[in-house]
From TrEMBL:
Modification sites for 4-aspartylphosphate: D69
Protein name according to UniProt: CheY chemotaxis protein or a CheY-like REC (Receiver) domain
One GO biological process term: phosphorelay signal transduction system
Signal peptide as annotated in the record: none
Amino acid sequence: MKNLSSTLSVWPSQQPRPAILVVEDQIIIATAMHDSLIELGADVVGPCLTLQSALGVAASAKIDAAVLDVWLNGELSYPVADLLVQRRIPFLFTSSVNVDREPPQFHHFPRLLKPFSDEELRSALSALWTPPRTVPPTAPFAA
């Protein structure tokens, strides 16, 4: 959380402090990500530590982007990703799981492999708003 060079460089112009949903089941990682995002100038929603809490927030909260851990206490976060796609909210995955083990419809979404640095998080989030930014269409995840 130290020596972050700047706030995120490409916030949407209409939202000076974007609300970023953090979905992460490991409290140490969730707290570190929260602190890093606050330092970068974001408002943090969550962290959501379980799939059920993440689904509730993703369905209704006013958020501008999300960071989703793929595995939440043994459950996959892909249903949360489906909700975000439906709401056209950009997001990225974090995981230590190789992309080859994920459903193909999610291969084209941005991801950070754990462990990642603050600078990698900043860069990945900034890229979510770099034109052209679209949320790729995907079929809902079938568990």
